[in-house]
Amino acid sequence: MHLALIGITLLALTLAGCVSTQTPQDAALKAPHPIYVAMYGPQPEEKFPLPATDISTVDPQFLRQEVAYDTSEKPGTIVVDTANRYLYLVRENGRAMRYGIGVGADGMKWAGRAQVGRKAQWPRWTPTAAMIKRDPERNRRWASGMPAGLNNPLGPRALYLFQDGRDTLYRIHGTTEPDTIGEAVSSGCIRMLNQDILDLYSRVPVGTPVVVLPDTRRADSGTEPSA
Q1: What residues does the L,D-TPase catalytic domain cover (predicted)?
Q2: What are the distances in angstroms from CA 48 to CA 45, 63, 88, 128, 152?
Q3: What is the 3-state secondary structure (H, E, C) of the chain?
Q4: One of 2, 18, 33, 173 is an active-site residue; which one?
């Protein structure tokens, strides 16, 4: 009995080692930096009090930061790098604010030059006819528009992209799905973490030039816009 008990104990220890060898120190190293925790903290003063964003599922490279950025675009220009999932706000002296983004899935990406033709706080979202046809169960009930709020897929802010004075139907906006930042999952629009779209919105006026770089890795391109 004694030997059996020892065997069971050793087996339990071995299995425990297979489950996890992470120490508290390892967990601390993987935890988001306090600066980012504060950066993506709650915004209780908003019309709809915005909770903190759980950034534990977001790759740190996609968190907001100022970086060196070599570009011929003028300061104040928004440059969207769809291939690498970054949005840059060009600044002076070869610098830029860089934000992580989610982009359109293959076949639903848009590229080109545009301007911020309109800005909206807590915007209303209306699915396109093609979106309703593609996913009627989810989208048909919002054919007349979804009111602003924490469950609205556009989030707390939206920048509307125009070309030659006409709405392209593409947007830069917040998201209800922070874990999709860095992925190609939307139906065409450019999604950002909610605290990031708040920051970008505060920095750019209507008329800001926007350059959406093509993702040359994809085989085709589509024109269907969405959230």
Answers
A1: 76-213
A2: 8, 23, 27, 25, 11
A3: CHHHHHHHHHHHHHHHHHHCCCCHHHHHHHCCCHHHHHHCCCECCCCCCECCCCHHHCCHHHCCEEEECCCCCCCCCEEEECCCCEEEEECCCCEEEEEEEEEECCCCCCCEEEEEEEEEECCCECCCHHHHHHCHHHHHHHCCCECCCCCCCCCCEEEEEEECCEEEEEEEECCCCHHHCCCEEECCCEEECHHHHHHHHHHCCCCCEEEEECCCCCCCCCCCCCC
A4: 173
Question: Tens of pLDDT along 41-57?
Answer: 999 999 999 999 999 98
Instruction: Give the residue-averaged pLDDT of 208-218.
Output: 86
Predicted TM-score of the model (pTM): 0.80
**pLDDT(7) > 50:** no
What domains can be seen in the chain, in order of their start residue?
57-213 (2.40.440.10)
Give the percent of the chain with pLDDT over 90.
63
More confident residue, 159 or 125: 159
> Which residue in 2, 18, 33, 189 is the catalytic one?
189
Q: Which two tokens stand for residue 84?
A: 């690498």
Is position 189 annotated as part of the catalytic site? yes
